[in-house]
Amino acid sequence: MTRRVRRRTCRDRAARGSSRAGSAGVGDEEDAPAAELDWKALPDDTMLQLLARLNYRDRASVAAACRAWRALGSSPCLWSELDLRAHRCDREAASSLAARCESLRRLRLRGHEAVEAVPGLRARGLREVVADGCRGLTDAALAVLAARHEDLERLQIGPDPLERISSDALRQVALCCSKLRRLRLSGLREADAGAIGALARYCPLLEDVAFLDCGAVDEAALADIRSLRFLSVAGCRSLKWATASTSWTQLPSLIAIDVSRTDVPTNAISRLISNSKTLKLICTLNCISVEEELVQDPSVFSNSKGKLVLTVKSHIFKSVATMFPGVDVNGHEVFNECNWRSSDNIAGDTMTWLEWILSQSLLRIAESNPQGMDDFWLQQGTALLLRLLKSLQEDVQERSATALATFVVMDDESANVDPARSEAVMQNGGIRMLLDLARCSRESAQSEAAKAIANLSVNTRVAKAVADEGGITILTSLAKSMNRLVAEEAAGGLWNLSVGEDHKAAIAVSGGIKALVDLIYRWPAGTDGVLERAAGALANLAADDKCSLEVAKAGGVHALVTLARSCKLEGVLEQAARALANLAAHGDNNDNNAAVGQEAGALEALVQLTGSQNEGVRQEAAGALWNLSFDDRNREAIAAVGGVEALVSLVQQCLNGSEGLQERAAGALWGLSVSEANSIAIGQGGGVAPLLTLARSEVEDVHETAAGALWNLAFYSGNALRIVEEGGVPVLVSICSSSGSKMARFMSALALAYMFDGRMDEVALVGTSSDSSSKSVNVDGARRIAFKHIETFVLTFSDPQMFSVAATSSAPAALSQVAELVFINEAGHLRCSGAEIGRFVAMLRNPSPILRACAAFALLQFTIPGGRHALHHAGLLQKAGAGRVLRAAAAATTASIEAKIFARIVLRNLEQHQSGTST
Predict the structure, then answer these.
(1) pLDDT at position 41 over 80
(2) Where do the ARM repeat units fall (predicted)?
(3) Residue-averaged pLDDT of the chain
(4) Which residues partner with 310 through β-bridges?
(5) CB neighbours (10 Å) of residue 346?
(6) Averaged pLDDT for residues 703-708
(7) What is the mean pLDDT of residues 169-190?
(8) Which DSSP letter does residue 417 get?
(9) Cα–Cα distance for residue pair 779/776, rounded to 1 Å
(10) Which residues pair with 230 in a beta bridge?
(11) 227 SS3 class
(12) Which end of the chain is less crowded, N or C, counting CB atoms within 10 A of the terminal residue's CB?
């Protein structure tokens, strides 16, 4: 996997790391030494401004510097509000903050443990509590919170469901908090008549109530809250609408109702319109019954008596603009607060409430991703979310960013992002808005904006826009945050952007590689999100030759090996193994292959990961071992730590696995089998039979890789006989004659040539085993079949007319044309040992003209100028004295024209290499 997207989840995120420090600086003349500035001499009001721009941890650190700053750091103006969502807030932390919280009025928290710790702050004058991630909150904890804060005016807990909160806790809130004005709760099991009645009796100022996604709400009892102005029951599916639409019209001050995501019928909406004298706004987003009725009769709410009904079918911007008669409100600017100030307070309060309930409903709709919403998202939903992104309400901003991150994702696992929706965000200027939000000082906003940028960047066009707008630099900066969640989402953004080849260098230039490596060192193994994203991004970057050097230079090899050795999280292990595989994939271009192999514990860890229960981990570990096996020292070291046995076991177990796992398992054995000892061990360990099974695969990459492993194994006579005994001749013949891969056909032909060049005959007399269990085979019959298909394979590269011209002409151009015709590009990546080259030279002397032609064809492939290892092969041929043998093969009267031409081309190649070396 090369990227990952994240929809919003309802996980409890109580522990999100610590805050990111703000910054403030004091300018001075360029030639003035910094030492002349006496920070302790700054006026108190200036110092207070600086302290206000710091997060709480850094503020406390600065305040500890001296007695004067300690007094300033405790100033009430610095502690009127706290946002502790980015911190772990438990009873101990609350106790340490208590001395400063006497003037605390507004508090934002995350996690039920944080809510339980609030009384420890001793903030008796607290007016507002906003909390999320409180799924585990209990009746007792909520009751204590209410009892200790009688001046509470606003209480909001959600959107995670409060599954353990009952009506008993609601009654306690009503009894203790008589000044309550706003109550917004999500996912209650019930809100019965007694609890709502208590709110009506004891909270005379209560004007804003939201029971979202609740199991049961007593509709009639809500009518007793006579002070109610704003009501939301969005997502409540068990309401009695006949009762609700009748009783709620009796509320004397009701201005707006939100019934989004419910099964409200149109006749209930009509009754509210007809009978309520004060109602101005009804929000019905994603109400199926209403939308179906509007499809049948678009004029169903035409006689709304001045009341505004918002649906996904209506033009929301134009509809909301009707709330401001006489005010020039253009398009999307209807949500601009400047337009509210020129109107009455009711309109302003209504717009503030509307922003909040729209952000709630749009996020919930994005999470459930119902069918038939594409038109809404493209025509106005995207623009609406982007407009809400500019809201002055912080939680509205954050929920809008979360919704933008969510509504574009079609499938979490496959990283499938809807192209039309993501590009709609881009076309409406959303990339710049999100990047601006990511640069704000609020870490909760930074994380949500970074998540949206990350998900949108799955679309390559949007990714380019993010990069063009400076997003890589912003994400790199956020990846250095001390807040774990901010760093995690930023790493996710870099992960997705690093898929694009054009962005890899930019990430490196911005310092992104160093930031990603530092993340692995900074966070403990339990933080799976940040580690997986950092390792995934490094894996993508390591696929680039130059970036792979930067990864190694930044300490990435050690960091990734540490993850592979010590982490227990499968997603992290998969990405770490993939990163190590990519680091080792550059062959002779850099030293990373050897560096990974020499890192303490690297090979042992990768060998151990081939036995993981997770297929993705096994696949990436096998891929890493495959790449590492190209280095001679690594190859032997892998075998020394049990790699041969582990990979033979893996190839035996993966026959029903994914194509990627099969290819990499066979590839790793291919790489290890270059060594004689390893090749023999693979054959004796039972590796032949599963490789033959994989060679039967219809998937080209799988049978090509298996053919390569069998080619190496067949070099040794014992393995060659095992292949024959296991029925391998028909398998290799099938590949040789019918594979769509020239490389697979080539290597299967070479394997057949190895098996029947005469060396296997002596072994065949006694079998492959010291006991009598060897299978009886007809070697002569198998040889005839093999030779027939080797000959057919070679002839497929023959052009009679072109070969005839080349045979009679001494012009180099004729041979060049033949060489160009028969060359297999991928064969240039094959590297043969001296023993293998010597065996092909020996085949040139073989009595069989078919083997001579096959050997000349193979040497042609290995020596073509420009091939990766052509010079290496030419040197081995020179050492073997192959020139005389090649000239004899080129002049032999019993040789085929193909063998003669191929031998001449090899001679020409050797001359060119020799000439190039001498110059």
Answers:
(1) no
(2) 429-471, 470-512, 511-556, 555-590, 601-643, 642-687, 686-728
(3) 89
(4) 283
(5) 15
(6) 97
(7) 96
(8) E
(9) 9
(10) 208, 256
(11) coil
(12) C
